[in-house]
Amino acid sequence: MDIEPDMTRAMKTFNRVPRYGTAVGRIMMHEATMLNWQRIERLIESRFEDCITVLIDTEYGPFLEGATVAAEVEAGLMAFLKSQYELLDAICAGTFVPDFMHLKYDFHNIKVFLKLSRGESGAEPMLSGLGSLDTERLASAVEGEGGTLGPYWEGLIRDLKEESDAIDGPGAVDTVADRVFLEKRLAIAGKEKSRLLVDFSRAAIDVANLKTLLRGRVLGKPPEYFADALAAGGRLDRSELVGLAGDPPDRFSARLLATRYGGMLEEVLHSEDRQVRLTSLDRDSDEFLLEKLAGMRRMALGPERIVMYMLKRENEVTLLRVVLMGKLHGVSAPVIERRLSSTYTRGGVQV
Amino acid sequence: MAIEPVKKIRIIAHKDVQDDVIEALQEAGTVHVERLSEEELLQPREVEEVEVEQVRRCTYAISQTEFLLGFFKQYGFQKTGFFQTLIKEKYPMTLEAFARAPERIDLELAYQECSELERRLSAIDEEHARLSQEREDLSDWTELQMDLDEIEGTHIYGMMLVRLPEDEVEDAVSELAEEAPESALDVLCERGDLKCCVVVYHPESLEAVEEVLARHKPRRATLPRHPLEPAERLEQVDREMAALLRRREILLTGVRAHAEKRSEIEILREYLVNQRRNAQLTTQFGRTRATVVIEGWVTEENQGITKSALGTVAGGVAVELSDLGEDDHPPVSLKNRKWVRPFEMLTRLYGIPNGIEYDPTWLIAISFVAFFGFCIGDVGYGLVIVVAFLLMRRFLPLGRNVKDLLLVMAYGGAFAMVIGVITGSWFGINPENLPSFLQSLAVLDPLRDPIPVMGICMALGLIHMMSGTIVEFRDNIRDGEWLSAIIDQGLVFLFFIALGVAVPLALAKVVPTTVAFLIGITPVVLMLLLLGRSAKSVPGKAINGLYETYNTVVGWMGDTISYVRLYALGLATFVIGWVVNTLAGMVQGMAPVIGILLALLVLLIGHTFNVTINLLGAFVHPLRLEFVEFFGKFYEDGGREFSPMGVDSKIVIIEKDGA
Amino acid sequence: MVGAVAQAAQGAAQASTWGGLTGFQWAIFGAAVAFIGGGMGSAIGITYVSNVASGILVEDPDKFGSLLPLLAIPGTQGIYGLITAILVTIFFDLAKLTGLNGLLVFFSCLPVAFVCLVSAIYQGLTAASASAMVARRTEELGKAMVLPALVETYAVFSLILTIYLFTRIPK
User: Fold this and answer.
1) Chain B residues within an 8 Å CB radius of A53
2) Segments forming the whole domain that contains residue C96
3) Distance from C13 to chain B by nearest Cα, in Å?
4) Is residue A339 part of a domain?
5) Chain C contact for B542 (CB, 8 A cutoff)
6) Which residues of C touch B (CB under 8 A)?
7) Number of domains in chain A
8) Cβ A28–C56 below 8 Å, yes or no?
9) pLDDT at B374 over 90
10) Is there a domain that residue C10 lies in?
11) What is the tens place of the pLDDT at every residue in C55-88?
12) C40 located within any domain
């Protein structure tokens, strides 16, 4: 199921312009309205009320106007994000780009329902309006009713359910669904015939696999866990990774360091401190995916630019949430700034 | 000196007259307000509630005006023709009239009324959409002769309305008979490929019925409950929809009444935006307990005006002017002779020169007009451009930039007429058909003998780029970079001087070719030796020298050839005009009287098209020559524009009293 | 022997046909090809920019004026093709053109045909990308225009070369 695009795709660059040109043009205007770092710094320095006043002139204005409490801010930000997704649906109708972007929210919601149906507690709240699936229909599909979501999703949900039911203990849903999500997203990127989106999805799979592998070993997970959790389709062969899981530490490190991700893993594998390991991996892997995304900037007129914009916007919303919630709870400016530096890279994207 | 010398200004006034000072500054329009000192005493005070409140109030009112404008647009009370999108409506008015903008309209009232209208209109639209949906649902079931209320059934029987594909009905009937014997399916009517069916069943067999139907791609219909039969309800719906549309019309007349004040609202919005900017500026002011300190920049020329404007403020204000210090980075104000001034727009298009860069606007003015003239290069078109643009400039309400642009192009059009005479181009008429005295004026023939014209274009280009190099030479001298000036620019001059000496000497056979060659090659050798000086090692210097020399020589060659585009564009104007004339001639021959009319039509449309399309080319290409070939030699942008406090609006144009 | 070859060459140069086509036919062929290249390129190039521009205009119709120059830039190649085609008919006495000279006219048209085709397409792409600058700030138009105008250089060169080659062909 390797979805390496054939060479003819590279020749299709021209044809994509008529297809995405208008969408990219609209995105260009929206890009221009994004908050720059100076504006963010100004927000960090201001009081909450002034933040809202500053934001009135931005795209957030209509959504945050008059917000005074956390719930209103949250609702406003979500409504804004929803409006961005509506824009995406409108300008990219008929392509796979909306599917590519919606997928993570659909999986999030599926996970919520699956966990509910298994009677697990601690499920996160639902994110309605951001996925492509209607949540009520999704709920009934998870209940096992047919005829509402179509064979693709129903089959997918059934498989997820069967697979996660086969595993005991909490976290089974996450393990399975996160893997399937990555694989499905790669498949969508392949259908979209975008080399960069495919590259990005594959890199995301590799990064996620490596994290799973390292965390799993730290936590002492059994070999079956890796077979369930590691996704296929990345640059690193899945079966090889699954095999690696049981290897002794020396061999394990040597094999991983020999891969293309060796540089990123060096610190992690050599450090004794567990905490250092995982945080540095998080940071390095984010940076790695960021570089992948930076490649998208060069494809100025294709679907990549749109995906990039959406990811940047999502990041911006995350960031605004940190600032505004911080302001509401009286967190001091330096603390907020410190918190931001771990979630936001200037002008970059958090994936 | 084309970049105006500026001075620092510091205005100290009692805080009670702050508003008067702002008004005076706004009217004078000469001071670029900016915080300059970092002294403790003059820190901008903590933003006071009053100012914040002022900003907030303006913001709120602005959003009200924007709501109103958007509302009018949504309901179609705004002109959206081609020209409206190209040229925004402008409102010329005096400052006093502008200041009275809030008095001319009761914004709060208009907002209240319009938001009420908006609420009612959208309620109507929503209801209308709901009814048309119901209408669509009902239209399939008009044959059903029972009240809508009864459809749901009772405890004795259940009933459902369902549409099935034609080929599924038979199977469904037989399966129902088998699996849910206490039920019956009747086909009511057909709608396309679907059959509308009524299923009656015993409540207990509901599940079995649903199971059967689910196998046959059913489309269930749920109709709203009413004590009427579907056909009756349909009529009722139609009546209700018609009533809604009538009410909508009435409401729209209300909107129209408000929309008549659209321009007032637009002006008010501009006024509020300006107010808000002023309020924000006041937070930049320094303070002591009793005074307010405004700092900024003023051009030397305007210091007198500023002082006298501030002198009118009651209670008096102190104005201090001081010269620039070493570390000051003042905003840049371009100042040129009157005829050059419109061309500042072109310089701005690239970017304001940084504070110490030479203002090249007068060079741009001369060269742009020349290039533009070459690109149009036709007496007729030139005349049309001059007349049309001067008229538009005179009579249309346009912003300053557009007016400048029109004047720039009119200058170019005038020069195009000159070029047209020299090249014998009159509305693209075949030169052989021109009167003989006009033919005798045409000393160049771009069509049959293109080489001389190309040569002239390249010569123009060389002069153009040379002037840029001279500016850079001057800049380097000014900065004390003597070496750079002599090597980087001096060698280029030497190269062309040597070329200019050697080639004629060789051609005239005054000296042997070898000597001429040696003269010509000397600057190149010097370049090879000297241009690589920035590299550290000796081989590095050699390689760098080779590279830089190649770059310089080939770069100058390529850039020079690039100017031949002027010839190509001029030829394009002529050739297309020529084709239009030929076409008109062909049409004219087709029929006696109508032929002439048609020919006139062809001429009108064809030549209009030609002028339009070539205007774009004649603007873009000379501009590129300025920005790439010319600016590339010396220009550094990055200056801040001197933007004095005053009314800044795209659609409101402030006229001075009596002007 | 040498004389015979020279004579044959002389004969070929003066023959009224070359490869079965007359000089007139070759010249018209060249004129057509020149415009086909330039015109197609411009059509494609403008399509690219206008696609993106239409998106920008959906969001902000006021940018029309500033986008117009960018829209027009890839159009010049078509004009160059047209000039070449018309020049062929004005420059040469088509009826008297020998077969070989007609062939030369045809070859001279090829630089415009190919370079204009390709440069217009790429110029369209460049202009489409550059319109992002106008989308951000209308004042950036000057700089945004420079980028696609650079691509045009080679279309201009091809036209100059073609015209220059025309002057070298015996009429």
Assistant:
1) 52, 55-56, 59
2) 21-168
3) 23
4) no
5) no
6) 61-62, 64-65, 68-69, 72-73, 75-76, 79-80, 82-83, 86-87, 90-91, 139, 141-143, 145-146, 149-150, 152-153, 156-157, 159-160, 163-164, 167
7) 1
8) yes
9) yes
10) no
11) 898 888 778 878 888 888 898 899 889 889 988 9
12) yes
Contacting subunits of A (3+ beta carbon pairs below 8 A) = B, C
Residue C11 lies in a domain: no
Task: Give the separation between CA B506 and CA B515, rounded to whole angstroms.
Answer: 8
Q: Does C139 touch chain A (CB under 8 A)?
A: no
What is the nearest CA distance from A175 to chain C, expressed in angstroms? 41
Asked if A102 and A85 count as a contact pair (C-beta separation under 8 A), the reply is yes
Q: A interface mutation test: which of C48, C50, C52 has the most A CBs within 10 A? A: C52
Q: How many CB atoms lie within 10 A of CB C14?
A: 11
User: Is B649 within 8 Å of B92 (Cβ atoms)?
Assistant: no
Mutation target among A15, A20, A29 for the C interface, most CBs of C within 10 A: A29
Q: Is C71 on the interface with A (CB under 8 A)?
A: no
B1-39+290-333 and B148-225 have identical folds: yes
Residues of C in contact with B575 (CB under 8 A): 82-83, 86-87
Predicted confidence band of residue B530 (pLDDT cuts 50, 70, 90): confident
Lowest mean pLDDT of B157-166, B494-503, B641-650, C127-136, name the range. Answer: B641-650
Across B621-646, average pLDDT = 85
Cα separation, A116 vs B365, whole angstroms: 74
Whether chain A has a CB inside 8 Å of the CB on B508: the answer is no
Q: Residue A221 is part of a domain; what is its CATH number?
A: 1.20.1690
Confidence check: pLDDT of C140 > 60: yes
Q: Do B575 and C83 touch (CB under 8 A)?
A: yes
Cα–Cα distances (Å) from B83 to C53, C65, C131, in that order, read: 18, 10, 22
Residue A344 binned pLDDT confidence (cut-offs 50, 70, 90) = low
Q: Which CATH architecture has domain B1-39+290-333?
A: 2-Layer Sandwich (3.30)
Long-range own/partner contacts, residues A334-337 (CB < 8 A, 24 or more apart): A336/A44, A337/A44
Q: How confident is the model at residue A347 (pLDDT cuts 50, 70, 90)?
A: very low
pTM: 0.74
Do B575 and C82 count as a contact with CB atoms less than 8 A apart?
yes
B148-225 fold: Alpha-Beta Plaits (3.30.70)
Percent of chain A with pLDDT over 70: 81
Residue B41 contacts C where some CB pair is shorter than 8 Å? no
Q: What is the mean pLDDT of residues C5-25?
A: 77
Task: Say how many CB pairs under 8 Å bridge A and C.
Answer: 76
Average pLDDT of the residues in B73-96: 70
Structural domain harbouring A264: 195-298
Contact B53, A49 (CB under 8 A): no
Instruction: Decide: helix, strand or coil at residue B461.
Output: helix
Name B470's Cβ contacts closer than 8 Å, sequence gap at least 6. B489
Report the pLDDT value the prediction gives residue A350, as an integer from 0 to 100: 38
Dihedral sign of CA atoms A33, A38, A40, A46 in order: negative
Query: Residue B56: which of A53, A57, A147 has the nearest Cβ?
Result: A53
Q: What is the pLDDT of residue A4?
A: 35
Q: What is the CATH number of the domain that holds C81?
A: 1.20.120.610
pLDDT, position A147: 61
**Residues of B with Cβ-Cβ distance to C79 under 8 angstroms:** 572, 576, 613, 617
Residues 6+ apart with CB under 8 A from B2: B334, B335, B336, B358, B359, B361, B362
Q: How far A340 CA lies from chain C's nearest CA (Å)?
A: 26
* Domain spans, chain B: 1-39+290-333, 148-225, 336-477+564-576+608-632, 481-563
User: How many angstroms separate the CA atoms of B458 and A241, rounded?
Assistant: 66
Pairwise CA distance, residues B32 & B306, whole Å? 11
Confidence check: pLDDT of B13 > 80 = yes
Task: Say how many domains are in chain C.
Answer: 1
Any idea which residue has 């009286």 for tokens? A330
